[in-house]
Specification:
Blueprint: H1 2-7, E1 15-16, H2 17-21, E2 24-25, E3 28-29, E4 39-40, E5 50-53, E6 74-77, H3 86-97, E7 101-108, E8 111-124, E9 129-133, H4 148-174, E10 190-194, E11 210-214, H5 215-222, E12 226-228, E13 234-236, H6 238-241, H7 246-252, H8 273-287
Parallel strand pairs: 5-7
Antiparallel strand pairs: 1-8, 2-3, 4-5, 6-9, 7-8, 8-9, 10-11, 12-13
Length: about 290
Amino acid sequence: MEWLDKVVTDEKQVVHREELRNFVFEGEPFPLVDRQLGIRKPGRLPAALSILTTYTSDNERPPYEDAIGSDGLLRYKYQGHDPQLYTNVGLREAFHRGVPLIWFFGVGQSRYLPIYPVWIVADEPEKLQVAVALSADQRKTSTSVSTPIERRYATQTSKRRLHQPVFRERVLQAYGNSCAICHLRHSSLLDAAHIIPDHEEQGIPAVSNGLTLCKIHHAAYDHNLLGIRPNLTVHIRSDILLVVDGPMLKHGLQEMHDAHLSVPRRKVDRPNPEAIAKRYARFMTSQLGQVE
């Protein structure tokens, strides 16, 4: 984990499988992920070291992946169907010992977002899965009895610690780490903006519901200073076009009016037309009553 602290930066938040396979500990090869299995249980350790979720496209993702339980905690599936398989035993041993693990979550081919430390807080062999806590606070969450407030807090933590960063990395990679409007390429200044907000039922964490936007265009999009038309061109709000307020407004917003949005190469990753149309309708409604 100390090594990951050095490798992961604001500009590079993902690690390549080759880096994880070639990790060296005390002068000896010590892979952090298994060659074929999702659970890494080194022979020299009593408990599992890491868990891995393989990258899949939004249209191929299995429904059980990173599912949040009714208690707000994430579930991770056993390896296969045998609870006594050594990797599954390693997960239970990590649970009993209370040791932290690393969760490598796939955000691209052979590219993973490391989430750490995480803890196994419950074993559910009848469902072939374990419950995973993503924070020290979540470790206190009961998987059997919890209050609505505790469940809501645990759910928010799961989304903040896993779903949101995974969504961000997948969207940024789909857009080539470049703002879809102005083409800024500094990752630390880029966000994954939801087309339909994530607190709504249709606000799913899919790349097709996201846009890579620089922070100024993300803020402008969220505050309805700009909209994206169904033909994927930028619409700057009419009153903003008339304001005289320095180079940032002129070049950053006003000159973007009618600009064409850059979209991912893969069709499955491109903005969902229905979501774009719905969001643009809201933008147009927000313009009513604006004072020049």
